[in-house]
Every structure is written in structure tokens, then in C-alpha cells.
């Protein structure tokens, strides 16, 4: 007693949809982290240092081991500002 | 770094006014977080006197340390830059391997002991700087020399 092939079509759709979704998430994560493993459990120090990395290299996960900072780096330090509440 | 972060900030202020001329200039360090972390113990080994001097100056200047300790601060920056430069010229390959491993493993030192052993031996041979974790008791093996790392992804021997 053979199973009609129409019964298997939904499974194909389900498996295909999960595959597309998973591959899409993988690709987005890869693109977001520039091919490296993502950082996790970042504390304030890590966030501040990653912001500094961005100012030195110009990309989110770029790294550089130069001993001299690029020109103008010392003047690109951002101050976070907020409106006075009272 | 103030301990309280601005809560509702919508904007940042980038002040591009250069430092006034009567303050001597210093080259800022261009190494990013992973190479700096990788070289941290060697910086500490060579620059301990300068760093201690700077912290002592800040302690003793009653909150005016940012202005009064500029001279000591420049020494700290120059010394750290010299260490980075020396490691780059003498141990570039093992240094790069180590900080790329760190960058791929969320900056966890215990995931990169194999690369770290190579870097440590290279730096000790070429520059004479030794990694020593401050405050390690005399009678235990320092954590970076143990072949097994209990938190690492790879449970066996690291090197």
C-alpha cells in the first residue's frame, strides 16, 4: 500500500522553509560579525573598547595591531550628552 | 569613564578642537581591543614603574589628576606603544595568531592557551618580557601554564 506523493509535499515545504530560515539567520549573523564568532556577555568595558575599535578601524569587528593610531583618532572621542532634567 | 551612563541620550558630541599648543603631543596607541588584551601582560611587565607612577600621581592629586598627571600619562602611552611595536617587529606571527584566536572566542584567554604559549615563549626569547599574573600564590601552577583549562570548549590538553 503505497503512500500517495501528495501526502509528502507538505513535509517538503516544512523542511524547505526551516532550511531557508536557518540559512538566512546564519548568513545575517555571519555578515553582521564580519565572519567572526559573535561577542557575547559584553560588559561596559567591552562595549567601550568595541566603540574604540570602530573608531580606529572603521568597521564593527575590525582589529588592528598598529602601535600608532590613525590621524585624527585622538579628536574623534564622542561624549554622550543628555538634556538636563532639572 | 563616569560610573553613571547617560540614560536618555539621543546624541553624541564629538569635539574636534585640538589640544592647546602648550600641552605636549603624544602618539595615541592604534592597537584595538584584541591585540591590546593579548599584549597586556607584556605591557604590564615592561611598564610597571610608569603605570605605578601614574596611578600614584592620580592618587595624590586630589581629583586634578587629568591635568596634573599629563606628563606621567604620556610616559604610560609611550611605553605601551613601544611594547606593541616591539612585539609587532619580533613576534608578529604568533601575536597575530593569538589575537585572532581571542577575537574569535569572545576574548576568553582560556580558549587560546596553545597560541598563548607560543607567543609567550617568543616574546620571552626576543624581548625578555615574561607573563606573570599578579597575586598568584607561590605553591600553585599559574593558570596560563596549566595544560587543562576547566572552562574551555576543548576539554583535553590545550597544548
Automatic annotation (TrEMBL), chain A:
The chain crosses the membrane at residues 7-28. It is a single-pass membrane protein. Keywords: Electron transport, Membrane, Mitochondrion, Mitochondrion inner membrane, Respiratory chain, Transmembrane, Transmembrane helix, Transport. GO terms for cellular component: mitochondrial inner membrane. The keyword Transmembrane applies. Coiled coil: none annotated. It holds the Pfam family MWFE. It comes from the Eukaryota. The keyword NAD does not apply. It is found in: Mitochondrion inner membrane. Accessory subunit of the mitochondrial membrane respiratory chain NADH dehydrogenase (Complex I), that is believed not to be involved in catalysis. Complex I functions in the transfer of electrons from NADH to the respiratory chain. The immediate electron acceptor for the enzyme is believed to be ubiquinone. Belongs to the complex I NDUFA1 subunit family. This is NADH dehydrogenase [ubiquinone] 1 alpha subcomplex subunit 1.
UniProtKB/TrEMBL annotation, chain B:
GO terms for biological process: mitochondrial electron transport, NADH to ubiquinone. PROSITE patterns: CHCH (PS51808). Residues 91-124 form the CHCH domain. It is found in: Mitochondrion inner membrane. InterPro entries: CHCH, NDUFA8. It comes from the Eukaryota. One of its GO terms (cellular component) is mitochondrial inner membrane. The keyword Transferase does not apply. The keyword Cell membrane does not apply. Its main location: mitochondrion. Keywords: Disulfide bond, Electron transport, Membrane, Mitochondrion, Mitochondrion inner membrane, Repeat, Respiratory chain, Transport, Ubiquinone. PANTHER family: NADH DEHYDROGENASE [UBIQUINONE] 1 ALPHA SUBCOMPLEX SUBUNIT 8, NADH-UBIQUINONE OXIDOREDUCTASE. Belongs to the complex I NDUFA8 subunit family. Accessory subunit of the mitochondrial membrane respiratory chain NADH dehydrogenase (Complex I), that is believed not to be involved in catalysis. Complex I functions in the transfer of electrons from NADH to the respiratory chain. The immediate electron acceptor for the enzyme is believed to be ubiquinone. This is NADH-ubiquinone oxidoreductase. It comes from Aspergillus niger. The lineage of its organism: Eukaryota, Fungi, Dikarya, Ascomycota, Pezizomycotina.
Amino acid at each position: 500500500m503505497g503512500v500517495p506523493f501528495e501526502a509528502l509535499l507538505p513535509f517538503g515545504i516544512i523542511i524547505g522553509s526551516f532550511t531557508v530560515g536557518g540559512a538566512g539567520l546564519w548568513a545575517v549573523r555571519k555578515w553582521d560579525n564580519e565572519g567572526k564568532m559573535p561577542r557575547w556577555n559584553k560588559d561596559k568595558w567591552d562595549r567601550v573598547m568595541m566603540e574604540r575599535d570602530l573608531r580606529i578601524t572603521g568597521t564593527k569587528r575590525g582589529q588592528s595591531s598598529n602601535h600608532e593610531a590613525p590621524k585624527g583618532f585622538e579628536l574623534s572621542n564622542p561624549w554622550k550628552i543628555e538634556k538636563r532634567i532639572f | 569613564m563616569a560610573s553613571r551612563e547617560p540614560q536618555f541620550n539621543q546624541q553624541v558630541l564629538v569635539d574636534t578642537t585640538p589640544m592647546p599648543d602648550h600641552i605636549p603631543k603624544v602618539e595615541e596607541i592604534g592597537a584595538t581591543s584584541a591585540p591590546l588584551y593579548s599584549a597586556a601582560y607584556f605591557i604590564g611587565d615592561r611598564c610597571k614603574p610608569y603605570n605605578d607612577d601614574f596611578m600614584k600621581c592620580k592618587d595624590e592629586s586630589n581629583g586634578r589628576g587629568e591635568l596634573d598627571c599629563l606628563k606621567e600619562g604620556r610616559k604610560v602611552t609611550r611605553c605601551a606603544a613601544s611594547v606593541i611595536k616591539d612585539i609587532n617587529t619580533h613576534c608578529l606571527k604568533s601575536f597575530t595568531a593569538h589575537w585572532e584566536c581571542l577575537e574569535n572566542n569572545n576574548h576568553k584567554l582560556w580558549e587560546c592557551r596553545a597560541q598563548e604559549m607560543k607567543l609567550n615563549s617568543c616574546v620571552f626569547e626576543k624581548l625578555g618580557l615574561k607573563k606573570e599574573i599578579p597575586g598568584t600564590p607561590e605553591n600553585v601552577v599559574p593558570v596560563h601554564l596549566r595544560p587543562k583549562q576547566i572552562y574551555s570548549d576543548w576539554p583535553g590538553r590545550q597544548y
